[in-house]
Amino acid sequence: MAKRKKTYFFNRDWEEEFFFTEVKDKCVCLICGSTVAIPKRHNVERHYTTAHPSFHTNFPAGSALRVEKARELKAALVKQQSFFTRPGKKSKKATEASFRAANYLIKNKRAFTDGDVLKGAMMIIAETVFKDEKNGSDVISSLSDVQLGASTVARRLSAMSENMSEQLDQDLRECKWFSLQCDESVDNSSIAQLMVFIRMVFADFSTKEELLALLPLKTTTRGIDIYEVMKSFLVEKKVPLEKLVSITTDGAPAMTGRRAGFIAHCKSDPDFPPFLHYHCIIHQQAICAKVTGFDHVMSPVVKIINSIRSKAKQHRTFKTFLEELSTEYGDLLLHSEIRWLSRGRILQRFLALKDEIKEFMKSREEDTSLLEDTEWILDLAFLTDITTKLNYLNTELQGKSCSSGDIRFTHGLGFGWSAFALAYKVIVEHFQCQLFGPIALPLSPRPRLSHPSRPFSQWPYARP
Questions:
Q1: Can you tell me the distance from the alpha carbon of 83 to that of 77, in angstroms, rounded to the nearest whole number?
Q2: Which DSSP helix (H) or strand (E) runs through 343?
Q3: Which parts form a coiled-coil structure per UniProt (predicted)?
Q4: CA 251, CA 182: separation in Å to the nearest integer?
Q5: Is 308 helix (H, G, I), strand (E, B) or coil?
């Protein structure tokens, strides 16, 4: 039977007895730095007596002088080790700082070349603030080691992109189900981009949302084009389509066409499992918000704003006029039909500056009869209030990791669309009953009141 190999361990008493210490499971002599292969007492004692015989005489065993000498030699060894390990730690910190700074630049949509500008600003600040400090030179030296050149920022971005892609691939393998949301829009270079978002559900019912892809549509944007680009990406990415549960799109014919739409092509593809299709509720809400029937208010507002902002000289004069009056806002906002939240914001700004706008138009001898019409002003105030509330609802419907239950009942610090619909139902009933005082909203639906509806401007108002 083979003899069992014996294991030896370093004894802390050897530090004062033989001037040895342990470094990475090795016995190291504090005097000369030599190592002993096997930590046996005999081996350590033999090296001490043969290589350093004078130490036993100069530093007697058990004396305070011997203890102090051992402590001094050990401190010198630790300092020597830190001298070689510190540059590695410093380089690691500089690399991490470079990644964080590159991430900050990209999130703020800055060019790669702005990294040099950022570093230059940091060096100026460091030299000004830390120059006379105790460790100021170390701080300045550490900042100078952070690499933020254009090529470095590009490499950092590429590395982060690859890492995020690997994490997404891992999540796709581990998730149990996922759903997709697709939306097509045109960028500044007139190229249609298909944005694909994914929400994954894991075994513990936790969810995770990510931007899956941004796919360019360089030619046409028909349903077949969207399908081919999407299918090519899913195959290349090796997305497990058997886990697909639903796809959400807007109501465009290219997406929802019965025969040639994107969804129709996906459902006819045998690689796709049976899935649910949803219409984006934010698109639906935005479409409904446009049907307000207040063109007699919106059209003049847009016309007045465009007349003020269309000419540079007139626009500058108007802004100077507002500055002289110290108004809350310094300018008017332009209206855009594409931006859903534009209407409420420009109406709110216009209503706040209506008196100043009227004075400015009078100074230019323009017609201000509309701004002096009480009924039109009331309609303007009503439309401003309604569109502001609709904008609030639109914002509540947005957000990451927001489920349908959150949207229905409560989201963030506000109320969901069920409470929103109930509140406006009560408001409409009060208006139909010609009740214009403060409204206490109930917690449960009230019986519907049947009264003939009429334009808001024709209702009786409480005038002073």
A1: 10
A2: helix 342-352
A3: none
A4: 11
A5: helix
Measured torsion, CA atoms of residues 9, 14, 19, 23, in degrees rounded to the nearest 10: 30
- Element holding 249 (H helix, E strand): strand 244-249
CA distances from 102 to 153, 193, 210, 214, 373 (A): 6, 25, 21, 21, 56
87-125 burial code (b ≥16 CB/10 A, e <16):
eeeeeeeeeebbbebbeebbeeeeebeebeebbeebeee
Taking the chain (464 residues) in runs of 10, the rounded mean pLDDT of each run is 60 75 77 75 78 77 78 76 56 88 92 91 90 82 88 92 92 94 85 92 91 90 92 92 92 85 92 89 63 77 87 86 82 65 79 89 88 89 80 70 55 52 72 64 40 43 37
Angle between helices 136-144 and 64-107 (to 10 degrees): 50
Q: Helix, strand, or coil here: 271?
A: coil
* Contact (Cβ atoms closer than 8 angstroms) between residue 196 and residue 212: yes
User: What is residue 331's predicted lDDT score, i.e. its pLDDT?
Assistant: 83
The CB-side HSE value for 163 (13 A sphere, CA atoms) comes to 7
* Beta pairing partners, 183: 195
> Are 239 and 216 within 8 A, CB to CB?
no
